[in-house]
């Protein structure tokens, strides 16, 4: 593949939004449970018991999310509060099943009865308030995960089109200087000629230090004659232009072979075909 010198303007001008839907199966189950809560002027301890479904692990997790939404707690904060009050023995379904009364007492002590009464009787429609809390809390994390996975799916579709089954996704490859993780190793992780990393800025866990650190780990481990392709997107980069420049500098000095965004899909496919021929894969 011909060596090129990519510019900051070329990459920044090709950036596009990464769309993602926060409403996954878990969120739908949570909203269904919330919408089953009756409209009433006053709630009691019995209503807490009705909110909790302990028939299996997933149902209990839905119940805990509902409790957190009524209380306005994040998942982590609810876990801390429950652990503090329940003591040792966990906070999951087995703990609830073994001592339901104590568990319900703790939920009441956290203010769940008052929270349910206040929330349900709040205008506008109370479920809209809880849905917004779900969206801004768990929903934002789901969006981040889907942004990141969306880029991986984008890359994998084209990789599969060009190389068929001759690639390994989300693996630890063996490089000349040791192992490192990557999103795709072609044709295999044992002796990869092409390494592909995809990061959507704003995806869960994709802090700037993580992105650059992951790229540098691949650069340090890989064979010098192996190609490293980096796929990224997201308008958040425009607010972190200097950080993007650091990655582009790695491309300019040869440590990264090429950088792509989703708008550059035709170039990505063309370059993979070129590399396939050059490496004889």
From TrEMBL:
MF (Gene Ontology): DNA binding; type II site-specific deoxyribonuclease activity
A single BP term in Gene Ontology: DNA restriction-modification system
Keywords: Endonuclease, Hydrolase, Nuclease
Restriction endonuclease type II DpnII-like domain location: 176-250
Name assigned to this protein: DpnII restriction endonuclease
């Amino acid at each position: 593949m011909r060596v090129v010198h990519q510019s900051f303007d070329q990459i920044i001008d090709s950036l596009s939004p990464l769309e993602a839907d926060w409403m996954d199966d878990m969120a739908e189950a949570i909203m269904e449970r919330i919408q089953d809560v009756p409209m009433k002027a006053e709630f009691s301890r019995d209503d807490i018991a009705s909110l909790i479904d302990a028939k299996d692990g997933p149902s209990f997790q839905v119940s805990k999310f509902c409790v957190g939404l009524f209380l306005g707690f994040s998942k982590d904060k609810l876990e801390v509060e429950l652990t503090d009050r329940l003591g040792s023995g966990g906070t999951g379904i087995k703990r609830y099943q073994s001592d339901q009364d104590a568990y319900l007492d703790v939920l009441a002590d956290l203010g769940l009865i008052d929270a349910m009464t206040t929330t349900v009787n709040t205008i506008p429609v109370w479920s809209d308030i809880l849905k917004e809390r779900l969206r801004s809390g768990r929903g934002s994390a789901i969006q981040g995960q889907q942004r990141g996975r969306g880029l991986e799916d984008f890359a994998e579709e084209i990789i599969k089109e060009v190389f068929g089954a001759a690639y390994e996704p989300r693996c630890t490859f063996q490089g000349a200087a040791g192992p490192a993780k990557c999103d795709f190793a072609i044709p295999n992780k044992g002796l990869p000629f092409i390494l592909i990393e995809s990061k959507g800025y704003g995806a869960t866990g994709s802090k700037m230090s993580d992105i650059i650190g992951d790229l540098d780990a691949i650069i340090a481990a890989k064979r010098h004659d192996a190609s490293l392709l980096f796929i990224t997107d997201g308008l958040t980069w425009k607010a972190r232009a200097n950080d993007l420049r650091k990655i582009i500098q790695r491309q300019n000095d040869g440590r990264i072979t090429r950088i792509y965004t989703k708008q550059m899909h035709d170039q990505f496919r063309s370059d993979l075909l070129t590399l396939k021929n050059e490496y004889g894969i």
